[in-house]
Amino acid sequence: MDQVEIFKALSNKSRLQILNWLKEPETNFPDQAEYGYANGVCVGQIQMKTGLTQSTVSEYLSTLQRAGLVKSNRVGQWTYYQRNEEGFAILNEIIKSEI
Amino acid sequence: MDQVEIFKALSNKSRLQILNWLKEPETNFPDQAEYGYANGVCVGQIQMKTGLTQSTVSEYLSTLQRAGLVKSNRVGQWTYYQRNEEGFAILNEIIKSEI
DNA sequence: TTGGTATATCGGGAAAAGTCGATATATCTT
DNA sequence: AAGATATATCGACTTTTCCCGATATACCAA
User: Which nucleotide is nearest to B53 (CA to C1')?
Assistant: First the structure.
């Protein structure tokens, strides 16, 4: 888990927004309700809310996942993303003791 | 204080290292001893330790200052830099509540 | 097996960041 | 006032990031 990679992932307004939205999926992605929130929120929902293209959002989610800040679950043709709180715990450790 | 700007400032190995070194100036910048540590560490000392050019280090320190992570004191021909712990407090707040 | 839908990957052009050497500015010393 | 030293800024070049459209892949449904 590279520190620089984590901070690079956080160096983008849209990616920060996605992470924040994923804190309260029920509030921020109501259209996801019919599929449930257990596995997270699917890419299409996130894409719509950002207003960016599908490819960009897919790329951004990969970036966040490589940094350890989200995790994904593939279910059928959907990929659900949710926050990875372990990643944030690591981030807190880094800031407390390594910076 | 822009969130993205803070994370961009942290998205660089050398800048992270500088911040970490400045946690213990006495240990990491012993040559600074004769001038004291009260105002921080001067650019030249930091430059030597990074191995980067003077202009790059000066630029990096400005970047960190714009992000609120260090503060500077000019004394004579020297500019001393030290950590700005308020900035780190803000960073912690951002991570806790805005991401 | 043929479409249809959701996501991922690829290729690219524009903008930003990384890093340098050269030069400017500020200050100190003599 | 002149030279020396410390730092900041400028101009340039290379690498990375941003973000897109097009295409590929995976899965589902008829």
Answer: C20
